[in-house]
Amino acid sequence: MSVRHLYLARHGAADAFGELTDVGRRQSDLLGERLARVHVTAVWHSPLPRAAASAAVVARHLPGARVAEAAELVDHVPYVPARSETPATWAGFFDGWDEAEAAGGRRTADALVARFATPPEPGAGSTDVHEVLITHDYPVAWLVRHALGAPPERWLGLNSANTALTVIELRPGLPPTLVVFNDLSHLPDELRWTGFPGGETRP
């Protein structure tokens, strides 16, 4: 039975214009070095420049892997929770969202799951599939929420650092397996963001 392995990563650090910085390129290079030990078949990336540039750096370490854009990986709000579902600290974030915007985000989120969060077809053979997805904070959170079978509003607060690695495995007939979330072990301390105080930055 083949397994689909998804290696999810937020893009490297970017500047205020959404372009990859020198720090972001170094982070992406180290992520690529880590993934080089895996037989990656494809590197998919968001259409946005910071993700495309990160994917190009990562792919240098993955000879033979296909590199391509996937519209479903674009930065988007996957689910706008009802007021009763929204933590008080997030309430202001959703001010001004109308129904059309919310529906559009959910369609993108559903398309993301349909395209990437599915196991290989039964009878597809015994060869595992290894795919890298270079995307953004919210799509990673949505795919993790989906893997855990959590309510849709639980994407809130699942934060990913720049080039942190999240791994999900998908097998036919079984629930998804979250192997690791937001792993930064390939980055030195000065390139990490952990969420803890101490002078760190989160570009």
How would you describe what is shown here?
There is one protein chain. By secondary structure, this protein is α/β, with parallel strands linked by helices. Helices cover 27% and strands 17% of the residues. The protein has 4 helices and 6 strands; from the N terminus they run βαβαβαβαββ. It has helices at 22-35, 49-59, 99-116, 137-148; strands at 4-10, 42-45, 66-69, 129-135, 165-170, 177-183. The longest helix is centred in the middle third of the chain and has 18 residues, at 99-116. The protein is globular and about 45 Å long. It holds the Pfam family His_Phos_1. Keywords: Hydrolase. This is Histidine phosphatase family protein. InterPro entries: His_Pase_superF_clade-1, His_PPase_superfam, Mito_Ser/Thr_phosphatase.
